Amino acid sequence: MFEHHHQSSSVSMIEKETPESQRPRTFLRDSDEDMSDSNSVRARFEKMIREAQESVCSAIEAADGGGKFKEDVWSRPGGGGGISRVLQDGAVWEKAGVNVSVVYGVMPPEAYRAAKPSNADANSDIKPGPVPFFAAGISSVLHPKNPFAPTLHFNYRYFETDAREDAPGAPRQWWFGGGTDLTPAYIFEEDVKHFHLVQKRACDKFDASFYPRFKKWCDDYFYIKHRGERRGLGGIFFDDLNDYDQEMLLSFATECTNSVVPAYLPIIEKRKDVPFTDHHKAWQQLRRGRYVEFNLVYDRGTTFGLKTGGRIESILVSLPLTARWEYDHRPKEGSEEWKLLDACINPKNGSNYNSKEYLCPRWSCFFLSLSLSLSLRLLVCALLILRYWKLTSWCEVVQLF
Fold it and tell me: Per the record, where are the segments of Basic and acidic residues compositional bias (predicted)?
């Protein structure tokens, strides 16, 4: 669950949620000064994540072929709320959660100093006093049943702090965060290449430095320190991002969110019906155990939510329905399981994922055939020239084919 990611032992409790029977038009406060402005970043970001929740859930249900999401709508007395949707025990999905939330809260000064971006008014004199904040985001984890189908996680969020009550008129701070990452139990190179190419294309529309920068950030963030390995095969991740134009970053977050379905669903369609054995399923469960370890020990969103009294069902929706731990399990070197573990320990450099190397199979075949066709034409032309100058015989020409 998104309920923001910055942690502090002294963070104030978030208000208890109240169940709602219907989805409200907006979760923004009526008293919010931006409420009347439909073009505000707060309003547009909320609109974007709610539309994304609809499109992702529709795609997930279509892929499952029968499973339906259970929906819970909730609000808080002081403003904000969210929509939690979970599909579990479906035909394709063991557990799929897609949540949106809008959160209003108050942080003490020390939490604000830890939470704010490093380039945000670092030398300001923070007097004792509460720091109001606004946060909105979409968060999702999708766990398929088939061990050859990978797990997907994505999360995109927007965060603002208002002026403190004891410092009226102070500038508002804002930043974006998020990412999309893939966690397979077995490696299919074409799947990984397709997934990373979609992330790269989304990034390259805005800044060529984004993909390599955010790919490395993803590898570093989803690192299970006590295991010495990454949770999966990466993707993109960024946080505290406010060193670009706000409109540009809003568009970037929207582009990344809209790239989730085309990056992931084609992989699911290819892998959801692949036959598997108990051996494959046991390995998937062991990797799910790693997922649980990371989320409960290191994930800042989970730990923050647990410490601040966030909605527990939304916080823990990222956990798989089943997982497994075996004492001192070591896959056989050279096995498919070993290859996955090795890739999690030694991630590929971001420069390996480029549009020339990682074209979709259909297009790579096209360019390969085109290349062979051109080579063949050049060979024929060369042989005709040789024959014209009587440097070889027709018999020799025929023998070359």
Answer: 14-30
